[in-house]
Structures are given as structure tokens and as C-alpha cells.
Amino acid sequence: MNIARSLLIWLAMAQAVSGATSTNLPPPPAASTADFQRQMAAHLAAPRFHTAQWGIKVVSLVSGTILFEHRTDQYFSPASNTKLFTTALALDKIGPNYRIKTSILAGSRPDASGRLPGDLIIFGRGDPTLNPRLRGGTIAKALDLFVNVIKAAGIKQINGDLIGDESYFKGPPFGAGWAINDLQSYFGAEITALSFNDNTLELSVKPASKAGAPASLSLSVATSLVVLSNRVTTVAKGGKTAVELYRPIGENMIYVSGTIAMEGSFKDEITLHRPARLFVELLRAALAQQNIAVTGRTRVMNWKDREVSPLNLPGLIEFGAVESLPLSDILREIQKPSQNLYTDLLLAHVGEVSRTKAGAGLTSEEVGIAALNTFLPKAGVKKSDILFEEGSGLSRYNLVTPNEIISLLTYMHRQPTAAVYFD
Fold it and tell me: What structural domains does the chain harbor?
């Protein structure tokens, strides 16, 4: 999101029934504001946009002059423009240098021989940056961040379970208002306080050596967590490659069907159910490679599990923690590619940081939205002109007017964190 602060902030949101998204190169700059306004009005009146709905506001950040506006007080579904609000909230609430901590905990210390009596708990708080792309380039290097803390604590054997604790977040693992069809796509990955590898795996399909034979399937990470059902047939060279994936809600069975040409290839990201289980499984294997044995099970505890078996955090020993990249880096990872999961993790984390006794019984997302609604009037945004259910914009029920997006962007332009927000 590169916005020239000395020039203009602009917003254009369109909703169209059919091909209204194809546009030509914009005309050269208008000679005057009046010319610019006439050109904009003519563009919106073009026949190809007769089914579209536009909301546009163009404002000079130097003078505050409104250079053009069209339906600026009407509600639109903001889609990923929602992220502008969530990231602004995070900057205001926790600041650009803030890091999210994932703690390594236990009820006691290891004995002189390195044996830890009881469970070892990895307590997540929503760090979105626990993935190989941002942590050394490989799964092993990302896991080493935890292995090194455990080794430094003198632990050589865990005489208990290895627990991935995701109970810091309260609520379902998906955002309010998400469509069921979004949940198996990478942009609808489950929200968990113990996220790893973007809560997805890459699935590859390769053709057999002869037509009619089954294709071969593989995952980017070998795991017993996911079961693949192979229904892909190899077809002759020049044939059609058409592969479909289906993961039933609440399962990690992936049905892969279709055809793949002999010279073809196919890759796609699949989302996981209870993805924290993948992290714990991989961490146990990484510990074994360092001769650190776990005598018990690997398991995951969420907020519902902790209602039955509460966790007394103050009574636990923290051997160390893995910290996220700073918020400034997280925002870049969110805004540039429009990353849904990171945004929703951030909203839930800010919600928990903001939680008070008055928020008891609310989900992390709901507390985050409450914090957003508290922040927005400070930014000059009218609460009556916005409605947010979740943080990334995947909900079709979010609503905002162009006026309020401009109010937010104008406010953020004047903040000390403007460079972090806009660059």
C-alpha cells in the first residue's frame, strides 16, 4: 500500500454483476480540478459500468480539499480494506516494535540428569510469523527456535506430554461471517493462538508415466495428521489438467480428484483442521533428532479444554520464549499480499491484550472488535458509519462508507507511525 502523502488519498470500491472490472490505462492528469471531476464522472457513466456500484473520495492531504466524491456516505462491503482498520488499531494499541511471545512452560524444573517431571507446554499467543519463509527458510530452522530454548533449559527427557496450548484465544477457529466455502482455501485458514506454517500445507500432484494410471500425491511436510484420498487419473499428453480438492469441515481428510496430463503439474495450498497439532507433531520429531525424548503423548489444548482443565499460568515456570518479528514487519506481511490469517491473529491478540472483566464471556475476536470500536472515534471515524464483524475482510457482513476510510487514512497520515502504516 504505497500512498503519496503529499498528494492524494483515494478510495474506489466497486461491486459488479458482470465484466465491469476490465479497464484501460487512466487518462493523463487533468489540467484542473474541474477537468478531473468531469473525467471521473464520465468514467463512472461509461456503459460497461452500468451494473457497478462505486464509492469514491479523493482528498488533498495538503489542503484538505475534496477533489472528487461519489456516494461517499453509502455502505460498501470493504473486503480487504478492513485490514486498514485492524492494522491501525494494532499500531495504536501495541506499537510498531511490539513482539508476540510464545512461551515454553512447565510445572517444575528438570532434575540433575535433565529429566523433566510432567508436561512441557508450548503456550501460543497468536504469533503469525512462525513459518519457514520468515524464520530461516526451512521447517527445521523454524522449529530450532523452540528446540534451542528447551536444550538451553537443560531438558534431556520429558516425562510427560508435549502440549501445544492454544487457549489464549477464545472462540471458534474462523471469523464471524465467513462463508463455509472459504474454509478450505488458504485465505480461510483456521485462526489459532499456536499457528505454524500459515496453518497450511502445499499439496503437489504429479502424473504417472502412462495414461490411465493414478497420479501421485505428496505434501510439503510429511505428517500423519493429513490423510489423502487419491482420485486423480493421468491422461495423455495434451489432455486437460483439472484437479479439485475437498476437505470436509472439521476433518483432515483431503479428497483429491480430477485429471492431470502427462506433462502437467499441479500445486495448491490446503488448510488444516486444528493446525496446532501439526506444530506439536513436528516439534516432537525435531526434539527426537536432538535426542530429547517425550515419554507421553503429543496433544493440543484449546480454550474449551481449559474450561475443564484450567491452566495456572502464574504458577508455571517459563524456560524461555520465542518472539515474533516486530509488529512493523507483521504489518508489511499483512498489507502487501493482503494476508487474512495474520490480520485475524492480530485482531484476536489485540483483543486479549485489551480484555477486561467487562469482556468476560466474549470471544477474542469480539473483544478485538470492541477495542476497534473504541479506537475509531479517536481517528475521526463515525461508529455509525461502520460495521465490522472480523478483522481481515473475509466476512460479507462488514460495512463501511468511503468517508470513514478517508477519515482513517487521513488520521494515520498524521501519526508518528505513518511510515510503518503506509510503507
Answer: 8-95+367-422 (3.40.710.10), 101-174+275-325 (3.50.80.20), 197-271 (no CATH)
